[in-house]
Amino acid sequence: MNKTFQTLGEFIIENQSEFAYSSGELSRLINSIRLAAKVVNHEVNKAGLVDITGAAGDTNIQGEDQQKLDVYANERFIQTLTNREIVCGIASEENDDFITIEGHNEDHQNKYVVLIDPLDGSSNIDVNVSVGTIFSIYRRVTKSGTPVTIDDFLQKGNQQVAAGYIVYGTSTMIVYTTGHGVNGFTLNPAIGTYYLSHPNMKFPEDGHIYSINEGNYIQFPQGVKDYIKYCQEETEDGERPYTSRYIGSLVSDIHRNMIKGGIYIYPETSKAPNGKLRLLYECNPMAFLAEQAGGKASNGYQRIMDIQPTELHQRVPFFCGSKNMVTKAEEFMAKSSKP
Ligand code: P6P
């Protein structure tokens, strides 16, 4: 039963039994993400007041300018996860390689690895548009007591034990799943407590919003062009059932579409044959959330969470949202790829 004004801490304790295999570590891991999110939120919310929005001068493995807040958020999440002695490894969009966390007495006994995009959409920071953190949690697959290897991170999305995002928007929210549905918690900044504000979130089966960067239209595959045309057609009585909404911040676009119904598409383009979004710390966690909320996520052909990763920062085309809308887009993709 969902209780109004239940805090995130109370919710985690009450649902502790849902965490298979966990003797409390997963709860402590979610709690550490909650703490880091509060610290990052504090900086994001005053970004305009301090010289922290400017580019940090470095570029990350993606070749993207690292905004200072990117670097700050990355450091906060890595530090919090390391201090809490729960994870044995961390992979981040901002780090070329994964980080091994030794633990007490260098025993590598911790069970979980975390993959994170510490501040997605950070190019929006200096124009005061919402940004977000995305995280994905797995049990390690290599032998306990030994340092993690790349195999612990290159797991299919269907092996995730938890995933979620923090959206630093008009309010700050944590939305996450441990495989038992999706729940959203809103931060009361006055007291630094997250409250259950969106219990049992569900992706509407259908929607009227399509989110895609149509500036890349000429580079899209024919199936995507056909789907966009379908969304723009008027009905016989002159109605336009669809509308375009694109913030350019994955967390914000997905969050809005999960509440209102809609589809987000970042397809392959002629310049980016695998699309732009990263499989491990953007698409897989969002796909887990979408499916747990009754939605759907694919690369236009295959379920995202069934894709076997081969590289830490690999990109995939991403279709995510209301089940019927993703299915319709996939029909256009299939039709256009027929010889
Ligand atoms: P474009 C932000 O850089 C991001 O990774 C997502 O948050 C966002 O949806 C997408 O890229 C925007 O990319 O090419 O449309 O600017």
Automatic annotation (TrEMBL):
Query: Key word Hydrolase present in the record?
Result: yes
EC class = hydrolase
Q: How is the cofactor bound?
A: Binds 2 magnesium ions per subunit.
Q: Which InterPro entries match?
A: FBPase_C_dom, FBPase_class-1, FBPase_N, FBPtase, Fructose_bisphosphatase_AS
Pfam families per record: FBPase, FBPase_C
Cofactor(s) demanded: Mg(2+)
Instruction: Report the residue ranges that make up the Fructose-1-6-bisphosphatase class 1 C-terminal domain in this protein.
Output: 204-333
Q: Report the subcellular localization.
A: Cytoplasm
Q: Which reaction does it catalyse?
A: beta-D-fructose 1,6-bisphosphate + H2O = beta-D-fructose 6-phosphate + phosphate
- Specify which residues bind substrate according to the UniProt entry for this protein: D120, G121, S122, S123, N213, Y246, K276
- Cellular component per GO? cytosol
Quote one Gene Ontology molecular function term.
magnesium ion binding
Write out the entry's keywords from A to Z: Carbohydrate metabolism, Cytoplasm, Hydrolase, Magnesium, Metal-binding
Which sites bind Mg(2+) 2? D117, D120, E282
The source's superkingdom equals Bacteria
Q: Does the keyword Cytoplasm apply?
A: yes
One Gene Ontology term of the biological-process aspect is: fructose metabolic process
Q: What is its main location?
A: cytoplasm
Cite the EC number.
Answer: 3.1.3.11
The biological pathway it contributes to is: Carbohydrate biosynthesis; gluconeogenesis; Carbohydrate biosynthesis; Calvin cycle
| HAMAP family reported for this sequence | FBPase_class1
Note the subunit structure. Answer: Homotetramer.
Q: Which family does it belong to?
A: Belongs to the FBPase class 1 family.
Put simply, this protein is called: Fructose-1,6-bisphosphatase class 1
Gene (name only)? fbp
